[in-house]
Structures are given as structure tokens and as C-alpha cells.
Amino acid sequence: MVWAKSNQTVDLVGSNRVYGLSNSNGTNGVQCYIDKPKNQPENQGLPTPSQLQHVFDVLSNTLPKLFIQPMDYKIYSPDVVFENRIRGTRTVGLYNYVKQVALLRCVGHLKFAYVRFEILKITQHPEDGTIKVRWRISGISGLKVLMQFWRYRLWQWKEMMQKQESWYDGFSTFHVNSRGVVTLHVADKMMPDDEKVVENKSPLAAKLALLLGLLPQQNANNLSDVMENLLIVSTDKEQA
């Protein structure tokens, strides 16, 4: 730190800032000029538990309503970064983020006669200040509604939706900073749950193994039941 003194000014030169002290127009007044450091990093520390819980609650309440009402953008930073690894794009700024959400809502309603956003799992992680959401966008096209509507009664609408709908799974990570706002949203692809695939295939695999003689002989007494179940499964698939 260096002091430099003249008749009118005294300058303090530091490593990051320069302070100037001078007389104003020959009077006794003193003016102070301060140059603020440029590119000062924003505080990106971890949020408090209450801040993280607030963002968690807002996302839990608003994400399922993404296609039917506006989002709550108060929890996002004006400089929020959105990394869409599903499409391979990256945007910066809240305005661009809002446009991406609006585009998703528009495409969803154009492609599907009925569309919804479903949260499969949502967790908060205080150790790194993130909230992770596994989600699913499901819908049924207008053509399927016209082609399949006559096969179901009105009170079977939910059953028709479950059988005919298409879906897209994804995984989002929201990074929350020390000010309690989301600064980064990373959206990535999510493969279907392996456990669900195993559960769906296990009964059929066991029945085929029994027919091929891979299971013990004592289970062969239920062969008629197995054949009946196989016929039921085949009939259900044909009806679907």
C-alpha cells in the first residue's frame, strides 16, 4: 500500500481500488472518488435450509401445472442459465428461459389433445444446494382420441389415457445460490426405470420357463393356470 501526497490530492493506491481525496474548487470541502472493482464475482455460496425448502415447495406446486398456468419465476435469477441437454442448447437470462418454457407449452398443446407434466420424484440436496426432479411429460394425440374414443365409455376415460398415452421422461437439476434463487437449470434425458421393466417381464419369463421345462416338476401342476394366464395376456394385448 503506497501513499502519495501533493498540494491538493492524496491518493491511496491498493491492489484492487484507487481512492482520491482532493479539495473542491479551492474550498475546504473534500471529494472522494472511488472506482469500484470490475467483474466482481457474485456470491455463489450455498442457500440456507429455509431458502432451499422455499424453492423446493414452489417447484413441487408449479411444475405439475406447467401446461395449464404460468410458472412462478420469482425463484429464478435474472441471469439464470438453462442447459437443455435433451436438445443440445444453452440459454442465458430469465427472458430466454421464459421463452423456452412457453415454447414447450405451445408444442405440447399442438402435438397432444391432452398433455400433462408429472413429477415422478423430487429431492433436495443441501450439501450442494441443488434440487433434483425426475419428471414425465405424457399426452395423447387427437388422432388417437378420435380412433379410440368409441371403444370406451365416458367413465373409462382415465383407463383409455393410461393405455394410449405417450410419454417422455427427463431429469432436471436446479442449482440454488446463497440468495435463494435458481442460477442454473440442467435438463437431461432419463431412461425408463429398470426396476419397472424387470417387474413387467418377470411373470412372463417365469411362465415361459415353466413351459420349456426349466422350472421344477412340482410347478407343472399349475400348467393349466399358466396357459390361462398366457391367453389372458395375449387377449389384453390384442385389445390394446
UniProtKB/TrEMBL annotation:
Among Pfam families, the record links this protein to: DUF2358
Q: InterPro entries recorded for this chain?
A: DUF2358 (IPR018790)
Q: Name the source's superkingdom.
A: Eukaryota
Output this protein's name: EOG090X09QP
